[in-house]
């Protein structure tokens, strides 16, 4: 194994896939979707190389937060905003239950099948969201829920905020698991 050029960083910049294949073409849509792409990839990086037990570990007691819960939560966030609110689909959340609004976090368990299901759900919802954005005629497309509405522009900014906030949690959770920190 070669010595890392930047041992204090998660990845050496030349090896960081988030810096490759930017979709930012300078347009507002390009900037927003590229930020969201990078944050989604960061979630994958923060969870990489961990066992089901490590992903399910609640590293900051008494919180129910775990990296696995975070994957499940973000799958439902993607689903709720893009399928339900923007596309108007009848798409119930995958992990929340009527008797437990935090089941995405609370039910996360050290189980390989659960980890696979969470990643599959998250990947499907991200793919759906990306396809929705690609099909949208512009950033002014409006989604609705209850008596509120949101433009695609506002939603993309919200999703960037949602991932940024939770990736801060992921940093702390990962550091508690194996001491790994990074960009």
From TrEMBL:
> What is the designated name of this protein?
DinB family protein
Q: Where is this region: Disordered?
A: 1-23
Coiled-coil parts of chain: none
What the entry lists under InterPro entries is as follows: DinB/YfiT-like, MST-like
Database matches in Pfam families: MST
Q: Which organism is it from?
A: Leekyejoonella antrihumi
Which Gene3D superfamilies does this one have? dinb family like domain (1.20.120.450)
């Amino acid at each position: 194994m070669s010595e890392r050029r930047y041992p204090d960083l998660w990845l050496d910049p030349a090896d960081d896939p988030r810096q490759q294949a930017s979709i930012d073409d300078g347009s507002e849509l390009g900037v927003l979707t590229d930020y969201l792409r990078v944050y989604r990839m960061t979630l994958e990086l923060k969870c990489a190389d961990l066992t089901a037990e490590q992903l399910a570990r609640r590293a900051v007691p008494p919180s129910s937060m775990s990296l696995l819960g975070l994957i499940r939560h973000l799958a439902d966030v993607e689903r709720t905003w893009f399928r339900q609110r923007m596309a108007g689909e009848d798409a119930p959340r995958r992990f929340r239950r009527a008797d437990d609004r935090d089941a995405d976090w609370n039910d996360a368990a050290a189980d390989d099948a659960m980890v696979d299901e969470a990643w599959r759900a998250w990947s499907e919802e991200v793919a759906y969201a990306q396809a929705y954005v690609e099909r949208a005629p512009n950033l002014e497309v409006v989604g609705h829920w209850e008596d509120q509405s949101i433009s695609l522009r506002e939603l993309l900014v919200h999703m960037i905020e949602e991932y940024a906030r939770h990736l801060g949690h992921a940093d702390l959770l990962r550091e508690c698991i194996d001491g790994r920190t990074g960009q």
